[in-house]
């Protein structure tokens, strides 16, 4: 919460199951579309809150299965547990407040006297739609999204004119995806979308894309691999060029999380984020630091990548010894 200097531009509070997360979407495309939109345009000045009936343990299990972004606040166990940030620091004051005069045994004993009481339903979507039809159909401050789950959240952002509502994932030529105001966060989202699509063979295998990368990455720039080895950008681009379609037909997805931007001088930005990669059953997360410059950019309205450093995020690399090419 302390990462924002002032009031949040936007705060989204969302349930998880069948709201942010679509369990009927095995490719998680709806969620990945939201991820790209949030990290490109909102992470730097807005708040993301998950409010779920799941316990902390159940929530962590869901995070392993689904490409969920790191929220600023996580409200769990139907509002009885509140935690903050990546480290999930508990709200001790809220816990103490709820614990005052609370006795679970008394509550369960009393409720057992009323057989008409039934456990909470796992999904109240039908009841919610019925309530909407009867009470809110003509209320312009409440919208019924026609798209599912996270895609419906994107739709609502557009309906209420809350800000950008076109996900970078919806732009097929990622490297040509431009915005009115140059945004370092958008830059890293845009690059890793291209990275994913190139390796999945979803874009044309053209020298145009690789030559464009050579303009975006400083010819003297360096990539520090998580192993500690320093590699010239030029070598990384060559490796990427040779990796076209190596994930064709595979369950391969890439997204960025926790993008933070610091302007260190008039034309240079330090960007930190987690690069997350799903490859089959293996999943890895690299803490990434990038130096971007607008002064040295050879293309208009673009940034030049000057330096990149990555480290493994402990406990989130599930593959074996890394024998792959030196890719970003």
Summed up, what is this model?
The chain has helices at 29-41, 56-65, 92-99, 104-111, 125-135, 149-159, 184-199, 207-216, 233-242, and strands spanning 11-14, 47-51, 73-76, 81-84, 89-90, 217-224, 230-232, 252-265, 268-279, 282-293, 304-312. It is an alpha/beta fold and 328 residues long. It has two domains: 11-159, HAD superfamily/HAD-like (Rossmann fold, 3-Layer(aba) Sandwich), CATH 3.40.50; 171-312, Nuclear Transport Factor 2, Chain: A (Roll).
Features:
alpha/beta; 328 residues; Nuclear Transport Factor 2, Chain: A; 6-stranded mixed sheet; 2 domains; 5-stranded mixed sheet; Rossmann fold
What does this structure look like?
The chain has 328 residues and is of the alpha/beta class. It has two domains: 11-159, HAD superfamily/HAD-like (Rossmann fold, 3-Layer(aba) Sandwich); 171-312, Nuclear Transport Factor 2, Chain: A, CATH 3.10.450. Helices cover 30% and strands 23% of the residues. The protein has helices at 29-41, 56-65, 92-99, 104-111, 125-135, 149-159, 184-199, 207-216, 233-242; strands spanning 11-14, 47-51, 73-76, 81-84, 89-90, 217-224, 230-232, 252-265, 268-279, 282-293, 304-312. A six-stranded mixed sheet has the order 7-6-11-10-9-8. A hairpin with a 5-residue loop joins strand 6 (217-224) and strand 7. Helix 1 (29-41) packs across helix 6 and helix 1 packs antiparallel against helix 7. One of its GO terms (biological process) is sucrose biosynthetic process. InterPro entries: HAD-like_sf (IPR036412), HAD_sf (IPR023214), NTF2-like_dom_sf (IPR032710), SPP-like_dom (IPR006380), SPP_C (IPR013679), Sucrose_Phosphatase (IPR051518). This is Sucrose-phosphate phosphatase.
